[in-house]
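Lab notebook: predicted structure, single chain.

Context: the supervisor wants predicted structures on file for every construct in the current expression panel, including those that have not yet been purified. This is the next one on the list. No modifications to the sequence; it matches the entry in the shared construct table.
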Amino acid sequence: MPKAIREVYGSVLAELGASNPDIVVLDADLSGSTKSGIFGKAYPERFFNMGISESNMVATAAGLSTTGKIPFANTFTAFLTTLGLLSIRSLICYGNLNVKLGGAYCGMSDAFDGSTHHATEDIAVMRSLPNMKVLVPADETSTRWATMFAAEHKGPVYLRLSRDVYPDLYPNDAKFECGKGATIREGTDVTVIACGLLVHKAIEAAEILAKKGISVRVVDMYSIKPIDKDLILKCAAETGAIVTAEEHNIYGGLGGAVSEVLAWGGAGVPTEFVGIRDTFTESGPYAQLLAKYGVDANGVISGIEKALSRKK
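Prediction complete. Output recorded below exactly as produced.
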């Protein structure tokens, strides 16, 4: 049975702590929500609750990394990538330090707390920072891989994590690679390149459109920085149209990253962006928010239809 992304992350942290005594975990008084508390319960001497002090937490993680520790700093994405940004940029990225950042409750998954707690700009922020790697897992297996990769990789890594349960996409023995994406569903008419929850919404959309004779390829771009240029250009050449789908502002996120590759590669194909249309989001039930802001299966279908209408 599928598990919540945050539960998988917390459990893997604890597993890593058992095999690597250099791993330490920090949280900004939200360990019950981020699930870093699972590690804290198992290894209290290596767990630091920094209180509601995100910039200091990240700075402390930076300092710990210079002593040979492997710090994982955790809090809600909206706070980590704003209040923690100065320390992320000026200490961790500038120094290329071995710090891992767990951004919990990404997108609108902290649904009822509203725009102050929703994180819809974080991909744009984090992928613009030199030395930073940006990973967005979409199920239990990819979350496990991303967390383990972060621990093994030397340098800054940002993990964009949801609070919710995502259905299984991959078998337990699936192979992943930083800088690559994965084709989840083959198709010939259009490609949807998605990340996180929107991979699942893209699959829903593809299944609906298949009944109308439209063949939709779905790609899980779990590594946003570095990004899989070869796969993007291959999809553009083979399907002739691209739709990006993300629970993020349409500016600067996955859509921007994919468009940069298409422009660089000279792939002049119709491209549509499914995402939050440059607005602050409201509070409410999560499913209703996804529908309201066009980041559900219907939103993906609309993006596909627009791309196909422009396809030569």
